[in-house]
Design goal:
The chain is mainly beta and 229 residues long. It has one domain. The radius of gyration is 18 Å and the shape is globular.
């Protein structure tokens, strides 16, 4: 089945970026209007699935799940969150997902940026880039997209859905949601000290906003090694 996708990420000072993300759908999938969103560092191993049925979830891939963890680190269920599709914000337009990337997230060295990724300038300190994914029943005009006037959003791009409808991805700058991340309780299988102490580690948090949209928050993570005397 042909995949149709958009890739995006935040870039900071020259030579540094945050994680990149991917939103995709399949054509020739029996006219199903399913949409997927994932942080590319994790490939397709952990993704948000926006199913046409209205049953949405964040889950580890069923094939990859058994290979990613070992022992007591293994989560009890590969499904990490379940939600129902929210009501449209206006007729035919649903705010499905937000991705928040704070101004200090661009810490990954990247001397040459991938030209296939839509790069977004990082937010000022104390603010975040919010990338918003909308599901639309209608094709909007070339100079129109969700939030263009009311929120001063800029367009990343749009995808058509094989069974009808469209995905629109936009971005703007907003206040950072100051929410502490819980300490890690386990690590991926095969991760050693070198990987854990790297300055490019990331934490992802997800949940549901009051309006029903799903939110991801990306944060850089610094892990320090305890010193023993």
């Amino acid at each position: 089945m042909p995949e149709h996708s958009l890739r995006f990420g935040v870039v900071g000072q020259p030579g540094y970026r945050a994680e990149t993300w991917k939103c995709w759908t399949y054509h020739g999938a029996g006219k199903r209007r399913d949409v997927y969103i994932a942080c590319r560092r994790l490939g397709n191993a952990l993704k948000l699935s926006l199913h046409e049925s209205g049953h949405w979830h964040v889950a580890f891939d069923s094939k990859a799940f058994s290979q990613m963890f070992e022992g007591h680190n293994t989560p009890p269920d590969r499904l990490m969150g379940r939600w129902e599709r929210p009501a449209p914000i206006i007729d035919g337009l649903t705010l499905a997902c937000r991705i928040h990337i704070p101004g200090d997230a661009a810490t990954i060295p990247e001397p040459s940026l991938d030209s296939k990724v839509h790069w977004i300038a990082c937010a000022p300190p104390g603010q975040s880039v919010e990338v918003a994914v909308f599901l639309s029943d209608h094709l909007l005009g070339d100079s129109d997209w969700p939030g263009r006037n009311a929120m001063q959003t800029k367009l990343v791009g749009h995808l058509s859905l094989d069974g009808g409808g469209y995905v629109y991805i936009v971005h703007h700058t907003c206040a950072t949601i100051e929410q502490p991340f819980p300490p890690p309780t386990g690590y991926f299988k095969g991760a050693g000290e070198e990987q854990l102490l790297a300055n490019t580690n990331r934490a992802l948090r997800w949940g549901q906003m009051d309006d029903g949209s799903i939110i991801f928050q990306e944060r850089p993570v610094v892990i320090t090694k305890n010193q023993t005397s």
